[in-house]
Design goal:
39% helix, UDP-N-acetylmuramoyl-L-alanine:D-glutamate ligase, alpha/beta, 2 domains, 17% strand
Length: 269
């Protein structure tokens, strides 16, 4: 898209860690703040696709997600956070994530919170507390429909959004709904963004491009919520055209071209 991105994380001193660093470098991510440590296995996620299947059957394998628990507050350099336009964080590892978000909030750095797998952690009081702490600090919250409903313990998305905004009226909620597109909700408006129809290879959204495109458009370029949402829909559509999405993430010009071809409007262009 054009924004400069740095990652704060931890990897082992192993071949998987080397591979991940190389891939991040190749797509322009600053990796200076990634901790490398002996004795841990770098996390790895594999997505397996049956390209002979009309329905694009897929399965995911995640190896050693516990590696992130080895990241400690003392490992985190605050310098890039102080200089950042936005901090994007989830809840892994929980204590460090809350502490970093708290410090970023003190420096008046906008915070985008990514709500993951609420069904799995809904009954864990430690994670529930962590979610609420970061949510209260956040300026943006990204979630899919199921996770938001499960976290708010509601029967439908409308009730979940209403409840989430009641708890934090100042937040911007961005909720992905798969084939139904997405919803951007604030205490004063709710915007429906349709999903772009493309000839897709991968039916899964690329979450990183989804969050990044929205933040870059809204915070970096100063676009309004509607325009930012339309850009995200275009980026998501382009990412679904390839199984291996990261090396093929679209640039801003390509995304805008797709938007124009679809006949959709962005006020800023």
């Amino acid at each position: 898209m054009g924004g400069r991105v740095a990652i704060i994380s931890i990897l082992g001193k192993d071949i998987i860690g080397d591979m991940l660093i190389e891939q991040l470098n190749n797509i322009g991510v600053v990796v200076d703040y990634v901790v490398r440590r002996e004795g841990i296995i770098s996390p790895l996620t594999m997505s397996l696709h049956d390209i002979t299947s009309k329905d694009n059957h897929a399965a995911g394998i995640e190896i050693n997600n516990n590696a992130y628990s080895n990241l400690h507050s003392s490992d985190v350099c605050m310098d890039p956070i102080k200089l950042s336009r936005v901090l994007i964080t989830d809840l892994v590892p929980i204590g460090v994530s809350v502490e970093i978000a708290t410090n970023a909030h003190k420096y008046k750095i906008p915070i985008a919170f990514i709500l993951h797998e609420a069904r799995d952690i809904a009954n864990d009081p430690v994670y529930e507390k962590g979610i609420r702490e970061i949510y209260q600090l956040a300026d943006y919250c990204f979630s899919n429909e199921d996770n938001l409903i499960n976290w708010r313990r509601k029967d439908d998305l409308t009730a979940a959004i209403k409840d989430a905004l009641h708890e934090h009226p100042g937040i911007i909620l961005v909720v992905s709904r798969g084939v139904e597109g997405s919803i951007i909700a604030t205490s004063s408006e709710e915007i429906q963004i349709p999903r772009f129809q493309v000839e897709q290879v991968d039916d899964k959204e690329n979450d990183d491009s989804y969050y990044g495109a929205f933040i870059y458009a809204h915070k970096g370029l100063g676009w309004n919520l509607q325009s930012s949402g339309v850009l995200v829909a275009a980026v998501s559509a382009l990412s679904r055209r390839s199984i291996n999405t990261q090396p093929n993430l679209p640039d801003l010009r390509t995304a805008i071209s797709v938007i124009k071809k679809a006949g959709m409007k962005i006020d800023e262009i």
